[in-house]
Amino acid sequence: MSKEPFPCSIISTLKSNLEIKLEEYKVALEEVRAEGTMNSVRRLRAIEAELDTIKSELEDELSKAGYSLEEENTSTLSADYKHPDGKLETITFDLEATLEDFKSFYDTHGIPVPSDFAPKIREIFNNNQTAIENEIKIHGFNKMLVVPGNLSLIDVARKMSKGKGYNLRGNFKDNRGFAGATEPPHTKKHRLVLVHDAEELSDREELKSTINIRGVDAESFNLLSLTDYLIFAKHHYIQTKKHLDTTDRTWIATKSGSNTITNLVSVGWIRDDRRLSVRTYGIAVSYGDLGVRPSAVFT
After folding, report:
1. What is the pLDDT at residue 261?
2. CB 22 within 8 A of CB 51
């Protein structure tokens, strides 16, 4: 099929809109770096959505004329992060290396990985490279997890167990433990999860600043699910022979009990007991060793 004349006037308009929006994006990104408020992050993400819309319109117009907007998909990406102390760090993710690493990890521990897992993760990575770079720039995430969807939390807990296992406490224990827990909806899907590779919350200023946060305020962050935390903790232990959260504890997005609106799960490793403590607190409470491990999830 022959191509239609190149839609110059439309492309020119879209290009102008794109350049204007990119300037707005640069300003918004600097505001996030300077202020770090939720409002500034929301503004940045709104501009990202507008940029995606312009890109889609551009692709549609080119497609109508028989052209295409080719994008080079790559398995690696890098972005610079400015730490709270002003230090700059270049963070790089290598998707293929990560997939190979986690394939071996899941095979070793008997976690089922469906045949469509790797292709779907590649699709997610390629479709969200700009957003992933922005999460690095804003939050400094430096570890990438790839997790299959629809895993059984009971099965994951059994296979990700370390030391003497688990110390199920309080309402979490009373409400059938892992069997009674309610995971976030995204755990039903294959996903790419960005986290901070830190053993303790106090190891990074971004995490340390969340200690003593109430559960209701912790929910404003993108908390890790219990499934993702257990995989993260086991993978970290295999690599380092060290446990996460031996002095601090972490709020988790997973709910437990009959009142899943007001109950949140928390986790922390008990050194003397050599078990992972898993318990439920009401969202109104806060403790001096309990904070947040933010994450970014792509499905």
Report:
1. 59
2. yes
